[in-house]
Amino acid sequence: MAVAGGSPLLAQKLAATLDPDERTGVRPVPERLRLPAEIAALYREQLAPFEEPTRRALAVVAVERASSTATVAAALGELDLDLAALEPAEVAGLVDLSGGQVRFSHPLARTAVVDSLSGPVLRRAHLAVAAVEGASSDRGLVHRAAATTGTDAELARALGVAAEDARRRGAPVTATRRWVEAARLADRGADVADHLVAAARSALVAGEVRWAADLLEQARAADATVGAGIEARRIDVRLATAAEDLDRARTLAEEADAAFGDQEPVAVAELLGEAMRAVLSQAPFTVPPLTERMWELASDAPTPGRWYAEVAYGIGRFVQGDVEGAARHVAVWPELLRAEGGVVAGPFLVEVVVPYLSFTDQRAEAADLLDAVEATVRANCAAGALVSVLGARALATYGIDLQDCIAAGREAVALSAETGQPGLGLVGRDTVAIAAAVAGDEELVAQLADELLAGGSLAGEVAARAARARVNLVHDRPEAAAAEFALLRARLGPENTTFAQFEVDEAEALIRTGQLDAARALLPVLAERAAVHGAWNVGVHERVLAMLATDVDEAVVHFARSAEALARTENRIAQAVTEQLWGERLRRAKRRAEARRHLARAVELFGRVGAVEPRRRAEDQLAAAGGTSDRTRPTAELLGVMELQVARLAAEGATNRDIANQLFISPRTVENHLGAVYRKLGVSGRPGLLARAATDGSLRVRAGGGG
């Protein structure tokens, strides 16, 4: 739309000029769009009267995108021209020389000028600008390349250096374009292939997956040896990861290790790291062999190569329960970030280090890392890196702010699909599913669970069934939750090797359905994790012990330990669930005053995290214990679905029996619902309800019935 000057019709015409690969994203849209025939004809008429000096001057303006008056004047001087040569174009309204800039009157005019001029004229213009910019500067190299029609090995090497500089400063699209130009100018097949492989790697960082695959194919056509080398195989691993084929990614990595591990240990370690990043999010307990091999290969390597391997090795130690060793090795991640920058090292760090920091209750550090990397990748339009950042942000904010968690996760999933790399959106997708379940959003859970199950992967099924089970627990349907876990165990077996730690929810479902022995069978797993993996694991283990306790005083001891451990984390969801179950147990034991304190705390915590349905359930229990809710909140949030239906009909004047007949429930149930409504809204019986309904539209019966 910007190039079309805001015209939707012209934008459509411009889009129609793209070739199939550009329209489908195999290659990015060219910097200079092709003009529709009728637009080109109009510009040809406008340009026809200009004499050669004006046309040569317009060529300089067209090729120099910065177009400051000083730069254009200097470049014109290289051609024995001056700004006066542009006066006919200015009079015709084609260019504007005001404000220290030389600008075309319309974005498409630049394209029209370039299309109308001969190759020699444009090449001389490029050389003139290169002379002004500096022949060895980045812009100078670009203009020299544009002026070169054959091969130029020296210029190709210089462009490769410029591309590497762009990669390091976090400009992956620029780097890719520089390497592609270097490949065009290289005079040996192996050099062409080397440049194209480097371009493909940079394109992946930019999120241009299809372009990367196309560049890799071109590299293999240019030189089969380079195409079979370690750098090309590294791209193969990343492409397999992007396509969600994690088994292939791991197989490719292991084959590369067998072929190149002895000759190129650091490069192989980095390649293994590509596979490790993907496997970590889906099957973390299978990661240690990869991380140990990385450390074996690169422990004596120069930095930053050693730092990648060391961080990965630390994660492997954490998975194996060596918390102290993990902390020592993972601690080098800030050095890696400083050395490599957010675009280059960022994806690895957010995919590997952020989960570790989150699980070890270092969420402030995780947030700092995410903020630093996200600012850099957004500034440099590195879509591939941004997918990883958003998925990690969803994981890091789970338990703190469900709205932010779901928003980040959904953006990660959408961007991963849009850029053709669904495998990078797995963490975001799985996190959104469980976050939506905790919030009680049955519609979103159903949608995501169907998508996850359709994918057929084990990790996808774990996420889907765990989310379905959690949402059933939130809506007080423990039998349905237990059924989901039974299906999950049928697929998974007794050992859970996936990223999802669903056993605490499984235990809750089993306990609430009376399957106490089955719940007790989960205690060894929970106890093992509690012994090595931080406060959250201690807290949920103690919570399950409390739920299994037959004596209320014994339960209180375990609930207190659970609350104490979870208070050392920032996971408000886990804290709220413990407070809710604690209050519920005390209420059943007729210790209503104590129950109210814990249920009120659960209401507060669920509210802070944005868990609407769990908050309603906690409010119901608080009301049953004689407590009151925050009556300033909207009625639709304060009341459950059935309570709201009953309240609306009562406010319309229906009797309890009328309401019972309409909603197919008993008059006694209607009476119980109304009692809860009065307590939650803080009104006195039906008169108070009628008075509130006069100013509260949510208490009026909607068109079409009483619901």
Task: Please characterize this protein's 3D structure.
By secondary structure, the chain is an all-alpha fold. It has a two-stranded antiparallel ribbon. The protein starts with 7 loop residues before the first helix and ends in a 14-residue tail after the last helix.
Topology:
Elements (H helix, E strand, L loop, with lengths): L7 H9 L3 H5 L12 H11 L4 H12 L5 H10 L8 H5 L3 E2 L6 E2 L2 H10 L2 H15 L4 H9 L6 H16 L3 H14 L3 H17 L3 H14 L1 H4 L2 H13 L3 H15 L4 H18 L5 H11 L6 H15 L3 H8 L2 H27 L3 H17 L3 H15 L4 H17 L7 H14 L2 H14 L2 H17 L3 H15 L10 H10 L3 H5 L2 H10 L2 H14 L3 H15 L5 H17 L3 H18 L2 H13 L10 H4 L2 H11 L4 H8 L3 H15 L3 H9 L14
Antiparallel strand pairs: 1-2
Helix pairs in contact: 3-7, 4-7, 4-8, 5-8, 8-9, 9-10, 10-11, 11-12, 12-13, 12-15, 13-15, 15-16, 15-17, 16-17, 17-18, 17-19, 18-19, 19-20, 19-21, 21-22, 21-23, 22-23, 23-24, 23-25, 24-25, 25-26, 25-27, 26-27, 27-28, 27-29, 28-29, 29-32, 31-32, 32-33, 32-34, 33-34, 34-35, 34-36, 35-36, 38-40, ...
Shape label = globular
Number of helices: 41
Global mean pLDDT: 88
Number of strands: 2
What is the beta-strand fraction? under 5%
Helix content: over 70%
Q: Structural class from helices and strands?
A: mainly alpha
Q: Outline the low-pLDDT stretches.
A: 1-18, 22-26, 703-707
Enumerate the strands of the largest sheet in spatial order, edge to edge or round the barrel: 1-2
Annotation keywords:
707 residues, two-stranded antiparallel sheet, 41 helices, globular, disordered N terminus
